[in-house]
Model the fold of this input.
Amino acid sequence: MNKQSKSELTRQRIIQAIVRIQYNRPKVIAKDRKLSISSVAQEAEISRASLHNNYPDIIKRIQEIKSAISPTPIDKKDSSLKKLQRINKELRLEIQHLNSELSKITSINATILMENARLHSIVDSNNIVLLGKDN
Done:
């Protein structure tokens, strides 16, 4: 029977803890905890100091996994910027459309005002007789 050293067994426990946390199947910590050095240490039931001092390669692996999972702040800001630029473009197009509609309505209003003035001048003039049912 091949016996493994205590260090190798601990390494296996740490790796298993990482996998359990990644797949939301931890045994020790809460399921909603995210992958971190602290959560891995707690799940593997070792101290963070032991993890840092004896397994720097695993620390590096945890950090690599975390950076691959979560987008960097720059990516988030870039995504937000693109979204805001798209919204800005849509709003500018809407402003152009509304300005065009405003021009049409202004033209129609001016035409109606001129017609109204012409009709008022006809009604107000003394030399025009309106024919109606009473006449």
User: Anything to note?
Assistant: The two ends are 127 Å apart (CA to CA). DSSP finds five helices and no strands in the chain.
